[in-house]
Amino acid sequence: MFADKDISKFDNIETPFYYYDTELLQKTLSICAEAAAPYQFHIHYALKANFNAVLLEQIKNIGFGADCVSAGEVRRAVEVGFDNKKIVFAGVGKSDKEINEALDLDIFCFNVESIQELEVLNELAAKKGKTAQVAIRINPNVDAHTHHNITTGLDENKFGINSWDLSECAETLKASSNLKFIGIHFHIGSQITNLDVYKNLCVRVNEFCAWFEDKGFIVEVLNVGGGLGIDYHHPDNQIPDFKSYFKIFKDFLEIKPNQEVHFELGRALVGQSASLITKALYIKNGKKKNFVVLDAGMTELMRPALYQAYHKIENLSRKLEVRSLESEVIKYDIVGPICESTDCFGKEVEQPESFRGDIFAIRSAGAYGEVMASKYNLRDAIRSVYSSEI
Ligand code: LLP
Known about the structure:
The chain is α/β, with parallel strands linked by helices. The protein is about 30% helix and about 25% strand.
């Protein structure tokens, strides 16, 4: 991602900023689209991973739909030009106002997460004289074997309708004249790197599909969610293994001729295409610890503070020295400027000897980075820079 020519270009740009490699994004999107094409799988990009309009423009142009979790995301998708008929609205807590807005926009489908939500949606659609298409999000109780904070498909999670409530759900659907059931929806978690987990999901999808068909429903859409992980430890391993991922669903789902399979990928599409570029403000060499204090912190990239997530950190200014092995390697705690002890990007990280003014890249920050930035400490809003501009 970083050629030496890029690094010198950063010298004149005020830090911190997100640097987006739009060529890499394009390559990732194309490889994903090519891997899905032989099976006619449909992809809805999960805007929550990154709703930056420049990226969305590229994602729309490749032909993907949009998976949204707020009226704001639905609006953003429409503004960027996604076809309304390729927009799905998911989320465990959609407000009446949000539902009304999405109904007015005639989106493709609501992924419904509770029986009460079905009732509310039916009522609001009736008031507008509309029929809303719905997919039922089922909690399949499949362990995604990922960080517990980003696991969503277990009985104890708040997401989806549990299997023991499905009979009541089916009755509510049948009694709701302003709803059209179109399919079933699942999402078991994020940053999934053990692809076998998806085989277990497929088994459950087949079971639930059969259950609905047995009750007389026509299941047109099998939406298996997202969650495919990226290689945070080796960011130069840029493209996730989309081929193997899609093949699992081809091999393990019992797909009927009238059925479409939908995916909601976020991180796998955008994760590797950005780095947080930041400058060392101060170096503090202590007796017990050495610190590099950066001008970006948890307010710009929250994942390490929130999930102890690993992001590879590179001192770009010393890259050449590392290559020639001239520099001394030192262990630093690499921290931000925020008044919180968890404002730390990495502890005891081996780096070349670093100096005030050195430029650092915090890699794999394209997903759940910029969009999770906060104003805490009344920080200035983080800026974005695109590879196509510099
Ligand atoms: N569909 C649903 C219903 C979801 O809840 C999510 C993510 C996705 C699709 C997209 O998942 P992906 O393909 O990006 O894994 N902030 C956390 C991740 C939260 C994921 C929330 N749901 C992080 O930084 O790791």
